[in-house]
Amino acid sequence: MEKIVSLCKRRGFIFQASEIYGGLNGVWDYGPLGTELKNNLKQYWWKVIVHDRDDVVGLDGSILTHPAALKASGHVDTFTDPMVDCRTCKARLRADQLAEKHGTKQCPNCGGKDLTEARPFNLMFQTQMGASVDPASIAYLRPETAQSIFVQFKNVLDVSRKKLPFGIAQIGKAFRNEINPRNFTFRSREFEQMELEYFCRPEQGMDLLAYWLKERIRFYEEIGINRKRLHILDVPDKDRAFYSKGTFDIEYEFPFGRQELEGVAYRTDYDLQQHIKSSGKTLDYFDEETKERFVPHVVEPSAGVDRTVLALICDAYDEDSAPDEKGKMETRIVMRFHPRMAPIKCAVFPLLKNKEALVAKARKVQALLRSHMNVFYDEGGAIGRRYRRQDEIGTPFGVTIDFETVGEKGEELRDTVTLRDRDSMKQERVAIKDLVETISSKIR
Ligand code: ATP
User: Fold this and answer.
1) 347 touches 320 (CB < 8 A)
2) How far is the CA of 411 from the CAs of 91, 368, 414, in angstroms?
């Protein structure tokens, strides 16, 4: 894991937030490449969940949330983790994550056994709206994106005129004051979620739970996650929320252990019923055909953006060997991102930077590709070194403009380039006019 964390900082995927002030625990900033990777992931999720379907629409809800909404959802009273203090080193710890030795609970920091009783700690961040400081001005930063979907259910239904089953999707920030943020970005205090609430008739719930579990596994395969490192946990009754009739956790084998990426849960009509009770408003559905009025049930695939980015990074990291400029084998770090997810799709290199004809042609090729994908131009250093720098950030394609390209080795090779594949390191000769289609077909 250290290698991955260090690569993330060195190449600009992920930085500690407020680093120059000593860092803010459990909060992270995405650098230039991390931002591209994260955007690619979110855009692909949106494409698959919203644009490719007729039955899902989007929402972008606010982060600041009315306390009554989170009271109704149960978050104000029960969104807690059990916390204990270590009296020896004063660490605050999650009671369910204590180390245990010979049947005795211990502090994982100092090994101390003098621990307080566990008490519930609410994970929500509370803030103040407006100038006055009184209980009526309390607002919360949302602990999940889902609740704004339930609160806006009626508005979205009215404007979209969807028939059941249909879904409302949202990508956005969520905040949890985790007692122990850890494992790099895995457990953060500020993170993003990609959530779908898929509303249905009660009798469709269990089938749709199975359907969405399958769809979501397919999604992870499509973004390049190795299926062998994905696991499905059928959450047993005792560990499920009392209102859920079935929950699956999709887990990934991180270097620090098997951990949840996404929960797919059949939540019945619990959330809508809670908001009906608390707001006094009708949040139901009228079936034109059967003339029935009822509160829909919901199946929720809820994924973490940051956890998926971390899984993409862990899954892509690889080391193999490749020859250096003198032909000596050296270790190569290569991020084997699926081309769909790769932050940069193609790097463009003039073979030599002091040959004007090569540089001018390379700039033209860059301009040609730029309107179709994220490209990177690099003219500094030996070509092998330039390839290696791109391998390390997972750029799947490299295009080199050489003397053949500008017609110095015969007319038949004019306007052709070498296209190098990151994984096989094989190079093929491709006509510039075919480049866009050759690369685009692999990154879509
Ligand atoms: P965990 O048990 O790991 O705390 P959870 O079951 O509380 O997670 P959910 O409430 O189901 O998580 O949230 C849905 C998704 O949001 C999770 O599968 C995860 O991907 C993401 N998520 C939740 N908490 C965090 C966090 N602190 N940091 C990053 N991502 C998170």
Assistant:
1) no
2) 72, 22, 5
Q: CA-CA distance, 53 to 266, in Å (whole number)?
A: 21
Q: Is the CB of 306 under 6 A from ligand 1?
A: yes
Whether 249 is in the pocket of ligand 1, judged by its Cβ within 6 Å, is no
Q: In ligand 1, which atom is closest to the CA atom of 302? A: 14
Nearest to 183 by CA among 100, 83, 110, 259: 259
100: which 2 tokens? 């245990």
Q: Position of tokens 């950030």?
A: 393
Q: Reduce the DSSP state of residue 77 to 3 states and report it.
A: helix
Distance 62 CA to ligand 1 centre (A): 19
pTM, two decimals, is 0.95
Q: What is the per-residue pLDDT across 72-123, written as a single tens digit (0 to 9) for each?
A: 999 999 999 999 999 999 999 999 888 888 888 999 888 899 999 999 999 9
Handedness of CA 124, 31, 17, 338 (dihedral sign): positive
DSSP letters spanning 93-123: EEGGG-EEETTEEE-TTT----BPPPEEEE-
